[in-house]
């Protein structure tokens, strides 16, 4: 604190994502809409993680097996995501440290290293879903063999390097465009599917049936695929991309306000996309849930009239593959950035930007390559790898959530004005406890079926 009682914050081993941090100008205006436009972007990169290929099987499968029952699970997961991302953005904007930097600073070198390993595995697990989704999309659209598709995903990193040189706003614009593609594709397919609107709306009301064994397992899968740890690190870092005066509390509050608006709007889009996925599964595939365990079977089902009914067509299948490719590309960009944030923040490893991103991507591609080479063109093997990768996400989520809630609730770290209010603290603690218990259960369920 300075002599006036204001908190003075210093960088933890330099700013997070130094080539992006504080590079985007914002207008000096009181216009709400101009400010919202200027601050829009980081929320889109965060939202990508909540509608990546890892969500697709669980959401569509949930609809195909249980109809609209699990709509309430998507709603609750999205509200939790909004709360956590608000805290992540606040940590970054107020302290000018991302979650990895703050965790390392307040836990020490040894524990920080252990937490880095866990988080790195979680990011690899997340990236595995993007690699698999991208490779399968290339196979479905262009007939490219899965092994070649996996190898091609490595070059996504080169695209990110080029985009970074063009400016962070260019990355945001491309991500938002790809999100729009995904949204439009699934909105069109759901309209064509003609869902039962009253049943759909009823699904947002939690039912006791969700607690039954099969429904609960699927619900846990949806939660695990929706709330992912790497997004908390990403959100706490890219929230610092706008230029603002850290020593001016009013300016900090202004930045936090519009960062929160941006995050909540984009996460609302992610919520709608996940709802569309479940609605599509329910409207077209209800009763065929056990037949739709892979991306290829979903692709084929969309043009099979015996499953999808009269609306089945090759166009629906092609649009599905296009959306899958867009989702994989989007998640590649954000996953690679998250890997860089975690590596720099936890172990203070300073290597060239291109090397950091190649290493992060390379580590994620290796297990997919091994699986593809060993099992050949067996997509089911890749989908099993995707499911098992969720174990690491389940393990890493509490490791991310507990420090986040603690740091943002601390007056010493956040200052009196910006520390979490009592209601936020209670909500954050409840979410952490519940999700930790659910994720432990998910780990046990997954390991029991290996």
Automatic annotation (TrEMBL):
It is a multi-pass membrane protein. The chain crosses the membrane at residues 66-89, 110-129, 135-161, 173-196, 216-234, 267-287, 307-326, 358-375, 387-407, 423-444. Pfam families: Nramp. Keywords: Cell membrane, Ion transport, Membrane, Symport, Transmembrane, Transmembrane helix, Transport. It is found in: Cell membrane; Membrane. Its main location: membrane. It comes from the Bacteria. HAMAP family: NRAMP (MF_00221). H(+)-stimulated, divalent metal cation uptake system. Belongs to the NRAMP family. This is Divalent metal cation transporter MntH. It comes from Candidatus Enterococcus willemsii.
């Amino acid at each position: 604190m300075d002599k006036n009682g204001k908190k003075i914050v210093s960088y933890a081993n330099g700013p997070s994502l130094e080539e992006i941090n504080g590079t985007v100008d914002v207008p000096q205006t009181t216009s709400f809409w101009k400010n919202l436009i200027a601050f829009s972007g980081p929320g889109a990169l965060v939202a990508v993680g909540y509608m990546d290929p890892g969500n697709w099987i669980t959401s569509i499968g949930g609809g195909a097996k249980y109809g609209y029952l699990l709509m309430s699970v998507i709603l609750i997961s999205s509200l939790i995501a909004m709360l956590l991302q608000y805290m992540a953005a606040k940590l970054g904007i107020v302290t000018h440290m991302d979650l990895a930097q703050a965790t390392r600073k307040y836990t020490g070198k040894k524990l920080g290293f252990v937490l880095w390993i866990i988080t790195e595995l979680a990011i690899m697990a997340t990236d595995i879903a993007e690699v698999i989704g991208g490779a399968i999309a290339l196979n479905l659209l262009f007939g490219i063999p899965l092994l070649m598709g996996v190898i091609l995903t490595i070059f996504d990193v080169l695209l990110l390097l080029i985009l970074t040189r063009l400016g962070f706003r260019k990355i945001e614009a491309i991500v938002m465009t790809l999100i729009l593609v995904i949204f439009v594709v699934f909105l069109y397919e759901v309209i064509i599917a003609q869902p039962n609107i009253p049943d759909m709306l009823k699904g947002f009301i939690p039912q006791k049936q969700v607690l039954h064994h099969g429904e609960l397992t699927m619900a846990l899968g949806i939660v695990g695929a929706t709330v992912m740890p790497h997004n908390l690190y990403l959100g706490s870092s890219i929230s610092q991309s706008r230029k603002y005066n850290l020593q001016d509390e009013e300016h900090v509050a202004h930045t936090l306000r519009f960062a929160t608006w941006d995050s909540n709007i984009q996460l609302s889009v992610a919520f709608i996309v996940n709802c569309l996925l479940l609605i599509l599964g329910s409207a077209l595939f209800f009763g065929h849930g056990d037949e739709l365990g892979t991306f290829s079977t979903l692709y084929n089902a969309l043009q099979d009239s015996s499953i999808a009914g009269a609306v089945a067509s090759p166009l629906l299948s092609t649009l599905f593959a296009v959306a899958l490719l867009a989702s994989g590309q989007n998640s590649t960009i954000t996953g690679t950035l998250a890997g860089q944030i975690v590596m720099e923040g936890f172990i203070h490893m300073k290597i060239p930007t291109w090397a950091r991103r190649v290493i992060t991507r390379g580590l994620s591609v290796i297990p997919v390559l091994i699986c593809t080479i060993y099992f050949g063109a067996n997509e089911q093997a890749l989908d099993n790898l995707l499911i098992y990768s969720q174990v690491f996400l389940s393990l890493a989520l509490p490791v991310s959530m507990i420090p986040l809630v603690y740091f943002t609730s601390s007056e010493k770290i956040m200052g009196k004005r910006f520390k979490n209010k009592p209601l936020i603290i209670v909500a954050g603690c409840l979410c952490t406890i519940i999700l930790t218990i659910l994720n432990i259960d998910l780990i046990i369920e997954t390991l029991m079926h290996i």
